[in-house]
Design a protein that fits this description.
The protein is an alpha/beta fold and 372 residues long. 32% of the residues lie in helices and 24% in strands. The chain has two domains: 108 residues, Lyase, Ornithine Decarboxylase, Chain A, domain 1, CATH 2.40.37.20; 224 residues, Alpha-Beta Barrel (TIM Barrel). The protein contains eleven helices and 17 strands. A hairpin with a 2-residue loop joins strand 10 and strand 11. The two termini are 32 Å apart.
């Protein structure tokens, strides 16, 4: 076994060093295949969100089994890692304003189909200058603030002005609208999510009508996520959705009401876990060897997969479980479902990929730490 890796192919799950980030390949493949089928049935494209897994191998699986049309990224360096791994169609669903990163994005656009979001006329000018200098073409999506309260423009007039600027700028092409409402993804009420989704769709329709009146075609409207993709697809306002966490699931998303069930983790299988070992037992509690250095805690503590143990404390190196029956012993292994998959994946160098309890492969977290 390499000293830098927790496992090697052929080992059993019991031999994997802990704490480790593990993938249940069967569950992952079923999730990806199902999303591909559902998106196809809904008549909508799926651009899987790479910020969740930051893995070339996972993205290639999503394209092969799920028909994903490309990948979303949040950072240029993240996009560079995907292009290096053979991904040919990328959308940076964020603003890129640092001159050095604008330059790198323009260079990257010479090797793949690349698009980026804008919400400022100055950004259009910066992208155009860089693309012209490198002899490349960058796609531009005008980002709308549809309720997230983050990046994006607020009015139809701003949408039209930015779209026109992008369509006329050398080295750029106007690709459409980005309309993502992140806060909608985790609304605890299914009806509240449907109502919010209706508002987002209405906002998109008004913007598209304004573009049409200005004589500007809108090739693509993209947005949506794991919590809202079904409503977004059904609205008819979107051309593609950007679901990411559906592939792995996490504890926070698992609690969200689904389109057809009381919880999303009844619609999508848990495929991602932090494998942990019991390293100490005390009366009424057990201490595991995985803490905040192995999984994020900002969306709540992990849950224990398939077992009814309550997490009572989460610190840098440890998770403490309530164990009133003293059922656990030193050396026992548990699969923990992290509260939030995205930042958890970014804490690890590799996924230990398991099939039927045996290590099939190790996949690098290709864009780990690429946050600039």
């Amino acid at each position: 076994m390499s000293p830098d890796l927790p496992a090697r192919p052929g080992q059993t799950e019991a031999e994997v060093l802990t704490p480790s980030l593990i993938l249940d390949l069967g569950a992952l493949e079923r999730n990806v295949t199902r999303m591909g089928r559902l998106a196809s049935e809904a008549g909508i494209g799926h651009r899987s969100h790479g910020k969740m897994h930051r893995s070339v191998d996972v993205q290639l699986l999503q394209q092969r089994l799920g028909g994903a049309c490309g990948v979303c990224c949040q950072k240029v360096s993240e996009a560079e890692a995907f292009v290096a791994g053979g991904i040919a169609d990328l959308l940076v669903t964020n603003q890129v304003r640092q001159p050095a990163m604008v330059d790198r994005l323009a260079r990257l656009a010479g090797a793949a189909r690349v698009a980026v979001c804008v919400d400022d006329p100055a950004s259009v000018a910066e992208l155009s200058e860089a693309a012209t200098r490198h002899g490349s073409e960058i796609g531009v999506f005008v980002e709308m603030d549809v309720g997230q309260g983050r990046c994006g423009v607020a009015t139809d007039a701003e949408v039209v002005d930015l779209a026109r600027a992008a369509a006329q700028a050398p080295g750029l092409r106007f690709d459409g609208l980005q309309a993502y409402h992140g806060g909608m993804q985790h609304l605890p009420s299914a009806e509240a999510r449907r109502e919010t989704a209706r508002g987002v769709a209405d906002r998109v329709r008004r913007a598209k009508a304004a573009l049409a009146e200005a004589g500007l075609p809108c090739p693509t409207v993209t947005g949506g996520g794991t919590g809202s993709w079904h409503e977004d697809a059904a609205s008819g306002a979107f051309d593609e959705v950007q679901a990411g966490s559906y592939a792995f699931m996490d504890a926070d998303y698992g609690r969200v009401p689904g389109a057809r069930s009381a919880r999303l983790d009844a619609e999508w299988e848990n495929a991602l876990f932090v494998l942990a070992s019991v390293l100490s037992v005390k009366p009424g509690r057990a201490i595991l060897d995985a803490g905040l250095k192995s999984m994020s805690g900002e969306s709540g503590p992990p849950t224990v997969f398939g077992r009814k143990f309550e997490v009572v404390n989460l610190s840098d190196e440890h998770t403490v479980l309530a164990d009133p029956a003293n059922a656990l012993k030193v050396g026992d292994r548990l699969r923990l479902i992290p509260g939030h998959c995205d930042p958890t994946c970014n804490l690890h160098d590799a996924y230990v990929c398991l099939r039927d309890g045996r290590v099939e492969a190790l996949w690098p977290v290709s864009a780990r730490g690429r946050s600039w």
